[in-house]
């Protein structure tokens, strides 16, 4: 039987951004993200659709079209392929990114 682990255990860092693989399956991957207050996940794109789920804290998600939204615990944002986007921490935040 596998031991229960907390998301905090994945991110042993004081850096403003930490990204760790939480689970890798046959067809996809889930990453755990820790974005500190005022931390930034820099502008980037994805080649496949993704979903970003806010677990704790509060972040702003923005994309190149000018779309902007605030994600709080329980909120999620779908991310379309080939659209530049970035995420800024409004509070210390934990998120899950599923592709």
From TrEMBL:
UniProt-listed InterPro entries: RmlC-like_jellyroll (IPR014710), RmlC_Cupin_sf (IPR011051)
Protein name per UniProt: Cupin domain-containing protein
SUPFAM superfamilies, sorted: RmlC-like cupins (SSF51182)
